[in-house]
Amino acid sequence: MKKMTFARIIIVLAALLALSTAWAARVGEPAPDFTATDTNGQVHKLSQYAGKYVVLEWHNRGCPYTQKHYETGNMQRLQREWTARGVIWLTVISSAPGKQGYVTAADENAFLKQVNAAPTAVLLDPTGDLGHLYDSKTTPHMFIINPQGTLIYNGAIDDRPTTDHADINGAKNYVSLALTEALAGKPVSDPTTRPYGCSVKYPN
Amino acid sequence: MTTICGGHGVRSSRHSVLRVPRSRRRWSSLLYLAASFLLLAASARAQAPPQFPAHVQLVWDGNPPSPGHTLWVGALFQLDPGWHIYWQNPGDSGEPPKIQWKLPPNFRPGAILWPRPILLGSGTVRDYGYEGQVLLMTPLQTPPELPATAPVEIAATIKFVVCREICIPGKADLTLTVPLHAQPPSNDSPSRKIFDDTRAQLPKPLPPDLKVSAGSTDGNLELWLVGAPQTHEIRFFPLDPGVIENSAPQNLDSGHGSLRLTLKKSDQLLKPPSRLRGVIVLDEIKAYKIDVPVKPS
Questions:
Q1: Of B77, B93, B193, B243, which has fewest CB within 10 angstroms of its CB?
Q2: A62: closest chain B residue by CA
């Protein structure tokens, strides 16, 4: 009986270790693969986008930092610009039920229409599994994966960590800069930056 | 998206227990951002908007200004229970308050002196900041000559976010009038006390008998302390973001007359930092500034 418990502990520890190594989303390393469902019931797997650039955008519409980028149209502009150039743009919502930013699929689709957003898809992650897989800290928090499946950017959307709408103009947009450099075959000059925003509203 | 602007939701000034003579405290264009149309519908239909969870005012330590000296002023925050504002490195989320001073000619503002922060947040998102009451004291350098009679009129715009489960941005336009000929405050005056209490919470330079060094291993950064007093707990607050994992435990062990604090490297760190800068807090009381080179592994 005692041995059994010990064996179980070992198994759990081994599983935890495997998880913790898998949880890393480090620039220069393979981006962790995931499967998630979007607001239209479509299933997306990261590996299905091999050969394309993929942007992950963590989102919470109740967060004033997110609102800065949507109320000014900045995020929608980025989504349009880069999806038009073949980039896959996946918005991710990791808010837990009952917490700020949690939405149903229908609610989110109405919101996308209302604010004229243009991501490839919005992935619903109410368990926070995808958020924890990438260790997403804030809304927004941005990741970029290259066509080979390597993470090439992990950080903020731009260099103005405020809720001020006036700070959109003149900000250095790290996502645009990284994509522009990568598409031109150049290394990304700022591959990690401090993401800024509200904390992701994970389940307790 | 919806934005509700204006003065509602802003807490009216409490009566001032501090030495803030003829100070006018005026909030303007404080933004209260509602989550969605649903929320707006709910709040429009019914009750008064919730009370804004932070109150901020400009204060002065009570010492009359003299030419070519330092005039001590500050932004005093009073936060509702459970709400917080942020340290100069806010950690994983949030942002530090910013003070934009509008001063009489030839007055020069210094930088905020940040009291030692506390660890906030939960789970994998951890922040550094303050709860309850906090004074962000700031030295103002006075010019070589002051006007003979007029009081010194000081104004500031303060931008901040205040967070609990959610975050609300705040902006306050504040003024403070400092008379030229005030009696210096007595030792037990409230204004003096709050500045003295805050000074006691400012991180100090390392004492000469406490030696700190830093090293880098595969996944960790290590801080070594030699000559530290009997200590049960040490927490390191990094000045630079993206160096350590803010949510990882900081393990303390001892041996050979020294203490070792192990800090997990941030996933965002692409190469070991050349220096480790920040504040160490011993047993939640003593706070020291550190800035040490990191020895490679």
A1: B193
A2: B35
Instruction: Summarize pLDDT for A50-69 with one digit per residue, the tens.
Output: 999 999 999 999 999 999 99
How near does any CA of chain A get to the CA of B166, in Å? 7
The crossing angle, in degrees rounded to 10, of helices A64-71 and A74-84 is: 60
Residues 166-195 of B with CB under 8 A from A: 166-169
pLDDT in tens, B251-279: 999 887 899 999 999 999 999 999 999 99
Substitution target from B98, B166, B265, B266 for chain A, most A beta carbons within 10 A: B166
Angle of helix A74-84 relative to helix A174-183, nearest 10 degrees, comes to 10
Identify the CATH number of the domain in which residue A182 sits: 3.40.30.10
Pick the CATH number of B3-200 from 2.60.40.10, 3.50.50.60, 2.40.110.10, 1.10.8.60: 2.60.40.10
Higher pLDDT, B38 or B60: B60
What is the interface pTM, i.e. ipTM, of the complex?
0.87
pTM: 0.86
With H, G, I as helix, E, B as strand and everything else as coil, classify residue B3.
strand
Residue A1, in any domain of the structure? no
* Mean pLDDT score across all residues of chain B: 85
